[in-house]
């Protein structure tokens, strides 16, 4: 019994440490080493440089960051930036991207909603602004069909999420609570075991039987389907109009104040990239995969790339109302104290770009900078 109590105490200690580190760990992916910065030469570009010599852009080599992948691969950002050079850095996790933004190591980043919320809240509203949208969807609950035939079979099963407190982790906890399942948010123990597993490890965990399914973004979901898993639920079905933010364009407030012309140019490139993706989805898919291969040394196989790409919607609207809802879900799950998100958005430059293109403005859900 003494040994049992000791083990229980150890588990409790781990849970406490997990909660203590939560605000620095919320985000996509893992804490694997990030790829060193690379500079894209501005040689051959047309036009003078803008107010900054260089803009440092961070993103993930992940399909949900397709706007950045395609925009870089096609030279759409560089076209708008003229003689201002682009310095890129590839991240594997939202927390490290936010840390880089806060430290001034990058100026603009493609980042998921949970790390953006946490980065803004932890800085007292002084670190960043969300200046544009990028992607919606691309998140699924995929399961072993031999163990889980329907949503009623989740009790007693082990479901993976990418990281404690990340966007998919919050979504799963919120969904399970809505179905009456009780789960401790820190340890993941409960009626359904929530197992926090790096997306790179999840396929092996699935094939070994360590997990029975996963609530994950693309392309991890399609990787699991290629291994025999089935899609039990597409998160789009849980949101009004099937839309919810999964990737935003975020900029440091310092850089936005000093170089609004550079931020506007990047936003023009992002809008152009999303328009190209919409008009030429197959060519854009190949461009995104080429950029992933360049960044990681490995392309995605067609059985993964094709369904993953189809499940993501690339758009300029940051879907601000859904970010507010995601924050509320995290608070309800016990993973976040109620944050003050007033001012997290500044969509002035995005709406200027959209107006120039003859398109309507997008709303900030009352969370815009004043």
Automatic annotation (TrEMBL):
KW Heme (keyword) present: no
Keyword 4Fe-4S appears in the UniProt entry: no
Protein keywords: Cell inner membrane, Cell membrane, Membrane, Signal, Transport
Localisation: Cell inner membrane; Periplasm
The protein's name: Aliphatic sulfonate ABC transporter substrate-binding protein
PANTHER family hit by this protein: ALIPHATIC SULFONATES-BINDING PROTEIN-RELATED, TAURINE-BINDING PERIPLASMIC PROTEIN
Species, as recorded: Streptomyces wedmorensis
InterPro entries, sorted: ABC_SsuA_sub-bd, NrtA/CpmA_ABC-bd_dom
Pfam families the UniProt entry points to: NMT1_2
Residue ranges crossing the lipid bilayer per the database entry: none
NCBIfam families xref list: SsuA_fam
Lineage: superkingdom: Bacteria
Similarity comment text for this entry: Belongs to the bacterial solute-binding protein SsuA/TauA family.
Chief location: membrane
CDD domains per UniProt: PBP2_NrtA_CpmA_like
